[in-house]
Model the fold of this input.
Amino acid sequence: MRRKLAAGNWKMNGDSATLDELATLAQRHAEASVDLLICPPATLISRAVSCAGPIRIGGQDCHAAPSGAHTGDISAAQLRDAGATAVILGHSERREDHDEDSDQVREKARAAHAADLLTVICLGESLAQREAQNTLDIIGAQLALSVPDSATGENTVIAYEPIWAIGTGLVPDTDQIGEVHDFIRARLERRFGAGVGRSVRLLYGGSVKPENAASIFAVSNVDGALVGGASLKAADFSPIVSAL
Ligand code: PEP
Done:
């Protein structure tokens, strides 16, 4: 049985005051029967850990190397040292803004696993790719290359995030979400066998809000959500957690 996961990505938003939202969330869901993860900007990680209660704290990216001359980057071990226990990798904003490809995402994931971080590996098609009916080919290729052989149900989560749904208010219909999630599950089972393939959690991400969360969570092979904008305020994120 896969435990549900509600994950929040604060992106480059938030400051010390935003940690009050985290503390409120931690209080409200102190007895949660689902897993919660918040990924604040790196500057807030260690302070976030001290007010997060049962909520895991994660980074939004890490470097593939353990240390070295990489100005501005953070290694997986440094995230761990700051108190993070997870990291988002391959978000479309990293892939687009920093030209990251799936090979780099896989190397980062390998480093994150070695540092004992839960990796949330993001995949997603553009609108042009969906309209050209290439969604499953794109997702299949990203999945094959981005996920390292070290993946298990304990250290890896996959987030399906259609690029055109992120921050736009547009959401695929539930059949479209189900089609991609079932496809990812089948591919994972084929590559890793039924044990690992069925234990990796699959999140949907892209304009998840309190109003649409329950219908998305009812879709087959949706084990939770990766939430951007609606994770910044406890009043928005909390009902999403409760819908799981
Ligand atoms: C995201 O950036 O991962 C995301 C899903 O954003 P939003 O929920 O704001 O669409």
Observations:
- The chain has a mean pLDDT of 97.
